[in-house]
Amino acid sequence: MCVCSGAEPLNPEQSRVWGPGLDASITLPVRYFYIQAADSAGRPLSSSPAGSKSFKVTIKALSNKEYIRIHVPDPLDRNDGSFLMRYRMYGSAMEGLLIEVLHQDKHVAQSPYILKGPVYHEYCVCPEEDPEIWLQTLSCPSKESQISNDFAPFSSIDLKRMLEEVPQRFAEHRGAIVHYTILNNQIYRRSLGKYTDFKMFSDEILQSLARKVRLPDVEFYINVGDWPVEHRKVNDTPGPLPMISWCGSTDSRDIILPTYDITHSTLETLRGVTNDLLSIQGHTGPSWDNKTEQAFFRGRDSREERLQLVRMSKKYPDLLDAGITGYFFFREMENQLGKAPLVGFFDFFKYKYQVNVDGTVAAYRFPYLMLGDSLVLKQSSSYYEHFYSALKPGKHYIPIKRNLGDLIEKIRWAKENDEEVKKIAKEGQTLARELLQPQRLYCYYYKVFQTYAKRQTSRPEVRDNMELVPQPDDNTTICKCHRKKSKDEL
Predict the structure, then answer these.
(1) Does one domain contain both 403 and 464?
(2) Beta carbons within 10 angstroms of residue 153's beta carbon
(3) I want to staple 48 with a disulfide (CB 3.0 to 4.6 A). Which of 3, 21, 402, 484 is the partner?
(4) Three-class SS of residue 160?
(5) pTM of the model
(6) Would residue 451 count as lying in a domain?
(7) Spatial CB neighbours of 24, under 8 Å, sequence gap ≥ 6
(8) How confident is the model over 228-254, as pLDDT tens digits?
(9) Residue 160: Cβ-neighbour burial (10 angstroms; 0-12, 13-18, 19+)
């Protein structure tokens, strides 16, 4: 079966294949690359039939003497003429990999692709000693505006002051602070408070980074709770402390990392059961013209405006389908508003318009909604994630008032301006695909710690009661690293 745009059939030779999964030196939990179908004139096709099996991809060790288990699912059809190919390695290919991309038994673009080894799997401990080489290999942006903004109040970081103030100000009251020191690419930590179980998420990304690149020597505190914690203003005396969190707000000064949700889902891609930033791209529902012309919301009762959505849905059922799937904060409202059955996230995209309302903080579903091909109607909010500053309201999504007072009006406007709305949805999706690539998350994490380390005014130390966070010690970590160990590690 071919992918067609009009009457012009897919041409394998003119189609394009590219992405980090074709670069042996880029190690990610799941490697991925893209296939863009094109016609005989090299014009990219703009549509593809749902469930198309246009492309077949085989990936195997270059050497017959190496047996490596590689999970290679079918390419994901992104419904716009492009396909996303993912594969996860469960061993390292020392000689390299052979990747064939075929269309009806004909090679596509420059297939077969030979990745000369070594090609390392996720759990191989083989960090690049020169961070600049690693950053360049991943095509990391030279500047991230959110990082620049977050560090603007902190031209220098006094570790002694942090040691004195953080436990007293944040650990005792918040109970969700984890103190880390990274020395010689080894990770040490101590938990400060009762509610630090989510340290497993910060542990796993730090371990993953340390396997790939030599991290700077750095000492910092991560807030593993929901809310940002540092509310001092820049001109206050004493001034704010550089606390690291997963969510920011306009009235706080925390330094923001990608959320634990998108980070963990990226690490667990192709072996977890939760949504991830890659799989969502191949499950965006029917084509635009076949989507239901309603706004849609399902979620817990973690904010009063979500209850308001349900009331609006009852009043305007032709415009809005909203329901609460679980009650915790407003249990007394369940009898009045009812409890909606759970809906699989991929089924959200059967609807043209998605309503994004905060939970306890920013709604962590927002990046997944942006990767779909529905229009996102986003509640105005003081909370933000690491990538929000790159988005422009009216260009990438439609803003709605905090109190949702203009939501019905905006849905009606969307229905009356279908072509413009379709363009906004596409612009948002295109930007989200760029910003939320797994390799960009790794770039972002590294840049935060690199920027932090440069501002430290004293050398990080392994403090009392800190414990080593070791790399996994099992057969999944076995690999033969070709890099020479640094003097610090000998």
Answers:
(1) no
(2) 17
(3) 3
(4) helix
(5) 0.94
(6) yes
(7) 96, 97, 115, 116, 117, 118, 119
(8) 999 999 999 999 999 999 999 999 999
(9) exposed
